[in-house]
Every structure is written in C-alpha cells, then in structure tokens.
Amino acid sequence: YSPDSIAAVQFLDPIVFCLHIPCLTKSFVYSQSDPGSISYFVRTDVIINWTIQRSFPWSRIILFVEDIPSNIPCSIYISENDVLIPVDAVTGYLKSKGANVKSLDDVDAEHFSSSPMNVTIIRGQQHGDFASCPKTCSILAENARVLAEQAMYVLPKLIEDPTKGQILLIVWSSTARICCQLEATTIQSSR
User: Fold this and answer.
1) Which of 8, 77, 137, 169 has a CB 3.0–4.6 Å from the CB of 151, allowing a cystine?
2) Which residues, at least 6 apart from 147, have a Cβ–Cβ distance to it below 8 Å?
3) Are 151 and 73 in contact (CB under 8 A)?
C-alpha cells in the first residue's frame, strides 16, 4: 500500500476496526437472518461461511487509527444497530483517538471539516441499510464531495486522469463500493 496515493477515506459500516473483539464472527455465524434477505444468501454461501468460520484473516484485515495517514481527511459512518461490528467499542475506540463523533441527525458541514477524522452514527439502521435510504445517500455523497475538496489541499500529488481532467475519489464500504468522479477545474498535477 502506498500512503502517498491516498487523498481521502470514507468508511461505510466498516468491519475493519476492533476486529480483535469477536463480534463479527460470532454474529455472522450464530445469529439467524431472514431467509429472504441478502444477508441470508451471503451467510449461507459455502465459501464465505468457511472463510468466516475457519480462515478469517483478521490480523491482515484489522485497521488501527495509526494506520490511517494523519494528514488525510477521513469520515467513518457506523449504523447504530449494526450486528456485525461492536458499535460501542468501535465508537469509543475512535473517540479515544481524537475522532469527532456525531449522530447523522446532528451533522452539518462543520462536522466534516472540523477534524481530520469524523465519525457519524446512523441512528436506527443496521449494517448496509444506508444504501436504501435516499436521505443518507445524499449526505454520503455530500461528504464525498467535501472530502474531495479537502484532498485537493492536503496532498501535494493527486491521481489525475489526463484524458478527462478528472480526479477519481474511491469510497470503500463493506457492503458497497461507490466511485464518484468529480470534475477537476483548477487542480495542478505536481508530476
């Protein structure tokens, strides 16, 4: 991994924090889900089930705050009722490392720019429910725009597509991958 190639990070229901707490594997293996849900199909897949039960590489997947470059903006969204991650432990851990924590209902533009790392709790939702909520998706998209603007000032080098004059901002999620291309108007490449 190349830290100087990361301009901004947005995590959506991340399972990578506090993996040393067995919440993910226990809830994945032992809790029952609705047979008509996507979660049911994921949990009953033989390969996924075997990986979680027998060979989950948590030591390679776990992410500590210290692993995130301190000079890049970072937004983390956690669903309040997420059964796959230990929400209180993750929120407490991130807060102890200096993250600004707010409820989605209380966020404003300042929340996303007040500190290098901010955590937003999505009240009343479970893992991945943000994808079916237009209001939440709108806030996520706005936050991605703010992160892209912050990234222009944070890193001396940005990845630029010379054919289209665009910057690609990649937002990773454990349930979805969202790519937003933003027009780059006055960005100078330092190549």
Assistant:
1) 8
2) 8, 9, 10, 73, 75, 112, 169
3) yes
Residue 130 has a CB neighbour count (10 Å cut-off) of 22
CA angle 73, 167, 100 (to 5 degrees): 15
Measured between alpha carbons, how far is 54 from 56 in angstroms, rounded to an integer?
A: 6
Which pLDDT does position 188 carry in this prediction? 32
pLDDT digits (tens, 9 = 90+) for 61-80: 889 999 888 888 899 999 99
Cα 40 to Cα 14, 26, 37, 51, 183, distances in angstroms:
19, 15, 5, 16, 39
Residue among 178, 189, 104 nearest 139 (CA)? 104
Amino acid at site 154 = V
Three-state DSSP state, 86 = coil
pLDDT at 27: 77
Q: CA-CA distance, 65 to 116, in Å (whole number)?
A: 11
Q: Do 74 and 9 touch, CB atoms closer than 8 A?
A: yes
